[in-house]
Design goal:
Number of strands: 15
Helix content: under 10%
Structural class: mainly beta
Largest sheet: 6 strands, antiparallel
Strand content: 35-45%
Low-confidence stretches: 45-62
Radius of gyration: 17 Å
Mean pLDDT: 82
Shape: globular
Distance between the termini: 26 Å
Strand order of the largest sheet: 6-5-15-14-11-12
Order of helices and strands: EEEEEEEEEEEEEEE
Oligomer: single chain
Number of helices: 0
Length: 178
């Protein structure tokens, strides 16, 4: 079973993903607000460019490296986007722009290559997350502090980052239970 957030009321819509083929459109109806919306299941092992039909998808796992949660605002609905090891370039999605973490938004103040979250292991094997501006025209803010040119800061789990008029929360990978 898979859970998807309704883009209108943020109610979870549950459906059996095994009944559908990856890549085919699925029309769902929210049982709370009756909004009808379309999603596509991603093909396993293939990273596809996002389109407006998948903006409400909640991932069951974060692939072991954490994720960012883009907070709903006037431009777009809530999104959860996975992080990978190395540099994760975050910016506004547009066709032909090959970035690792594309945010679906109409926010004109967010650059196509706005900031970078780097995920790497330290000498003790723990994941370390750092943030730097790409550089962008409107800046990258952590809390209320604007990052300077070439400034890089170490992130904490739950840090709030603002790029343009869009805010996201950095969520670290959960340690494996022994």
């Amino acid at each position: 079973m898979k859970r998807i957030l309704c883009p209108a009321c943020e109610n979870y819509v549950v459906f059996d993903e095994t009944l559908y083929k990856p890549g085919e459109p699925i029309v769902l109806v929210c049982n709370r607000c009756t909004k009808q919306f379309t999603i596509r299941l991603r093909k396993p092992g293939v990273k596809t460019a996002p389109d407006g039909t998948t903006s409400g998808e909640i991932r069951e796992t974060d692939e072991g490296y954490g994720h960012i949660t883009v907070i709903e605002n006037a431009f777009e609905y809530k999104q959860e986007l996975p992080l990978a090891p190395g540099d994760n370039i975050i910016g506004r999605y547009s066709k032909g722009n090959e970035i690792q973490v594309p945010v679906l938004t109409g926010d004109p103040s967010m650059g196509r290559n706005h900031c970078v979250v780097n995920v790497k292991r330290d000498k003790h094997g723990r994941l370390v997350y750092t943030l730097r501006d790409f550089p962008s025209l409107t800046g990258t803010f952590i809390g209320n502090k604007c990052l300077g040119k070439k400034e890089q800061v170490v992130l904490s789990d739950g840090d709030i980052v603002t790029i343009g008029a869009t805010t996201f929360i950095v969520n670290f990978a959960k340690p494996e239970k022994a």
